[in-house]
């Protein structure tokens, strides 16, 4: 597959919006309930860029088929070396290596930025995502029972972590 991983641009926001809204409305990959507007997604993108956080896309045949990003894990100065990442793909792009390319790029960017730790918060029922993260060296570090609620059910979260700082 001819796949390009690159920094997202404002022109990519309609595709990013379509991907995230599908996840919001049909999955427990994200615990939001309401579809986002283009204005909301644009504000998110501008804040990410202004904060120096990456937003990247996977492009195939000049079409955005997935995106990824990370942001500081928690808004306290002591957490500045740890980030929580997110990757979302369109339905037709799962299981063909797109997510791995996005995650690999985010890991590399984290290393180059001097970050120490990447964290994934994953719906515990999403075994595919948990196994995917294990392939890239993430280790399960926590399990929180019934902390989310969506689609009329309580949801558990698995926290996974990768130490990205390269050893000297």
Automatic annotation (TrEMBL):
Domain N-acetyltransferase: start-end pairs: 3-165
InterPro entries hit by this protein: Acyl_CoA_acyltransferase, GNAT_dom
CDD domains: NAT_SF
Keyword Transferase appears in the UniProt entry: yes
GO molecular function, one term: acyltransferase activity, transferring groups other than amino-acyl groups
Superkingdom of the source species: Bacteria
The keyword Acyltransferase is annotated on this UniProt entry: yes
Keyword field: Acyltransferase, Transferase
PANTHER family: N-ACETYLTRANSFERASE, UPF0039 PROTEIN C11D3.02C
Name under which the protein is recorded: N-acetyltransferase family protein
Organism, scientific name: Dyadobacter psychrotolerans
Taxonomic path: Bacteria, Pseudomonadati, Bacteroidota, Cytophagia, Cytophagales
């Amino acid at each position: 597959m001819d796949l390009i991983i690159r920094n997202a641009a404002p022109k990519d926001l309609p595709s990013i919006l379509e991907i995230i809204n599908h996840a919001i409305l049909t999955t427990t990959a994200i615990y939001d309930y309401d579809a986002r507007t283009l204005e909301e997604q644009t504000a998110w993108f501008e804040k990410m860029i202004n904060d120096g956080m990456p937003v990247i896309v996977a492009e195939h045949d000049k079409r955005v088929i997935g995106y990824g990003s990370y942001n500081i894990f928690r808004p306290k100065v002591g957490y500045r070396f740890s980030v929580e990442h997110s990757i979302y793909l369109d339905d037709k792009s799962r299981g063909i290596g797109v997510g791995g390319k996005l995650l690999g790029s985010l890991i590399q960017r984290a290393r180059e930025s001097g970050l120490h730790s990447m964290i994934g918060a994953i719906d515990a029922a999403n075994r595919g995502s948990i196994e995917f993260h294990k392939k890239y060296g993430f280790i399960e570090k926590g399990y929180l029972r019934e902390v989310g609620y969506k689609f009329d059910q309580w949801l558990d979260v698995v926290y996974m972590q990768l130490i990205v700082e390269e050893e000297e």
